[in-house]
Amino acid sequence: MMPQNQTDISKFLLLGFSEDPKLQPVLFGLFLSMYLITVAGNLLIILAVTSHSALHTPMYFFLSSLSVTDIGFISITVPKILVNIQTQSNSITYVGCLVQVSSIYFFGCLDSMFLAVMAYDRFVAICYPLHYTVIMNPHRCGLLVLVTFVMSLLNSLLNFSMFSQLSFCRDVKILRFFCDPPQLINLACSDTSINAILVYSSGALFGGVPVSGILLSYARIVSSILKVSSSSGKCKAFSTCGSHLSIVCLFYGTGLGEYFGSNVSSSARKDVMASVMYTMVTPLLNPFIYSLRNRDMKRALGILFSRAAKS
């Protein structure tokens, strides 16, 4: 089969879900509910942080930034799924696919790096409590967010440029519900060695480096907590890290299941379920983890709801 130039490809077919007409209303209702709950939950986190003065701290500033990222992350896949189900189509345009790929890299990198920044914040708060306000000053917090955004954007633009140079054959069926970068590489007819190197390099840089930073931060945190004499002090210190650790395990656990599980499993259904966990369930659960495990957040949400009820 002769390769086609990429400009001849007008669309890709997303075959991640069953095309059974009986299942379409169920899938539509499920994904719409997940999307609305995710957006509403993360918006509540953002509103609570911005409106409650007690939450005007670096920890909650980074949390609200993570919530914005989660809204963007789920918005690059679910709305397209809903449109395809409603129109009984499983296609996505060539340009739309490239935009989706670059957006996945952008928001995925943002998520990963924000989790590392939040781990650094907890490290400073627990290991250097007397210098916390000096180290984590507003200027440094803003700089950390800016650097995270710029690096994620550059990685996204680089991947967009590299994937736009690929040529594809006529068989453009993607066994996912979104344009998965590794699957696009497998579908290409042109040389993909540079793209493969870029994919794994991006994973190592924006996945491996943040994970290493998180592990180092928590190694120091645990070491400092163990030196605390009182059990109540240890419990309080661990409780401030519990929500963040839960999100870290959820994000990287589902991410590993998505990108490495497919190499072990030959089941397309299991691969799709791993994708759902990574792209939908993680952003859905993040606001619940923080709101249910955090007293300050629950108090702020209570005040927010009471104000809304009075107005």
Q: What topology does this entry show?
A:
Elements lengths: L10 E4 L9 H28 L6 H18 L2 H10 L3 E3 H34 L4 H4 L2 H27 L8 E2 L6 H7 L5 H34 L4 H29 L1 H4 L3 H26 L1 H16 L1
Parallel strand pairs: 1-3
Antiparallel strand pairs: 1-2
Helix pairs in contact: 1-2, 1-3, 1-11, 1-12, 2-4, 2-11, 4-6, 4-8, 4-9, 6-8, 8-9, 9-11, 11-12
What this model shows, in words?
The protein has 311 residues and is mostly helical. It has a single domain (6-310), classed as Rhopdopsin 7-helix transmembrane proteins. 76% of the residues lie in helices and 3% in strands. The chain contains twelve helices and three strands, in the order βαααβαααβαααααα. It has helices at residues 24-51, 58-75, 78-87, 94-127, 132-135, 138-164, 181-187, 193-226, 231-259, 261-264, 268-293, 295-310; strands at 11-14, 91-93, 173-174. It has a three-stranded mixed sheet. The chain is globular and about 65 Å long. Residues 1-7 have low confidence and may be disordered.
Question: What does the main sheet amount to?
Answer: 3 strands, mixed
State the CATH superfamily name: Rhodopsin 7-helix transmembrane proteins
Percentage of residues assigned to helices = over 70%
- Determine the strand fraction and express it as a percent band: under 5%
Gap from first CA to last CA: 66 Å
In the sheet with the most strands, the strands line up as 2-1-3
Which fold name is given in CATH as the topology? Rhopdopsin 7-helix transmembrane proteins
Give me the CATH architecture, please: Up-down Bundle
Shape: globular
Radius of gyration: 21 Å
What would CATH call the class?
A: Mainly Alpha
Please identify the structural class as seen in this structure: mainly alpha
Number of helix segments?
A: 12
> Mean pLDDT, as a whole number?
83
